[in-house]
């Protein structure tokens, strides 16, 4: 079971983000916990009971045949009447077991969702609605479990009824043989003893078969996950990236649709090139495709047409792990893990020393609040960093990127959560970090991109303009309209 848990978790880590767009996190957690726990119970105890009774059944049949071949043949003739309903009802039990596990997974997914957004739930007074949703989900799981239990009980009752009916028939035939002198009373007694042993083992098997079928349903769910082929994987013979790294980034007529939005092109024949060490900003309205550029470069997705290249090598021909070692990403909503600051900053460079971690934190201006925590860098930051403000989480993420020392730096609204003073400090740190590195910046606040080498304006999945701040303002296009909206009150 430990091996299965490791295999399933390793498989989950291999799956691309598109998988989690259509599969709820709670569903995956349920498969890793509930389904594997059910299998553990079966492997640890139920399977042993089944094996023991199967041996008793087989041994009893042999002794029946030795004691009275005629009566043993009668018993065997009744086997199809037991096996056929066992197979028919067993299939239904297995199907209902799978449904029951799915409903239990729904409970886990709902709890995960509500607890993740507990502040929003309470802020909007959504508790009564969530209680009703939870009650409905629990009732659905209860109903599925009742249907499975009824089918399993019917299976057990029917098998035991047929088995002991067969024993009564054998007793009746055997009694007549004793009266006729064809069988001794001792032989009949021995035969009845063996028949009861066989019947008891069949009865025990019919009781545990429900658990075995439940485990089969859980195993189906686990195998379904294990057999899901990741769309983003290393090729059979990956190409190495050039050494030393240069940081040349190219998009060659790239077209891409998100799997969940196949009708709208996130990128439509986009071509761009970032020279080594160049700082380029992507600006435009929400939904223009800016974040998609970063996600394709990180190879969270593959383009449907065109190519994305790093240092002249198509990223699809490279091992994703090697590709991502040359990149550092600071997301708009940074992820802080349930650990201390040492572990969070060291996340992308696990072997870094405490001295290097502290230096990265100082460069990101994170030491001023980390040193004030009860245990400094060793303080637990809370699940998803709930003990930190938005700006503090952002500075932890920037320190993580600084420590990684990437060739290509990807900043997705990296200063959006900072107040004016923090933004000034972090912007200074980013200026140091960006020196000599290819940097791709996504920004809605145009004041943060005035000093980049080039600004690319995106709209509806296309690059509609390119230039510096002043030249784009002079064009009086989309960039000028965005700038007018942001700067009119300043």
Would you write up a description of this structure?
The chain is α/β, with parallel strands linked by helices. The chain folds into two domains: 2-226, ABC transporter type 1, transmembrane domain (ABC transporter transmembrane region fold, Up-down Bundle), CATH 1.20.1560; 249-487, P-loop containing nucleotide triphosphate hydrolases (Rossmann fold, 3-Layer(aba) Sandwich), CATH 3.40.50. The protein is 59% helix and 12% strand. It has 17 helices and ten strands. It has helices at residues 2-14, 17-22, 25-67, 69-77, 79-116, 118-123, 127-180, 185-226, 290-297, 320-325, 341-345, 354-363, 367-370, 390-404, 420-434, 469-475, 478-487, and strands at residues 249-257, 265-274, 279-283, 305-310, 313-314, 327-330, 408-412, 438-442, 454-459, 462-467. A six-stranded mixed β-sheet has the order 6-7-8-3-9-10, sandwiched between helices. A four-stranded antiparallel β-sheet has the order 2-1-4-5, covered by helices on one side. β1 (249-257) and β2 form a beta hairpin. α14 (390-404) packs parallel to α15 (420-434). The mean pLDDT is 84.
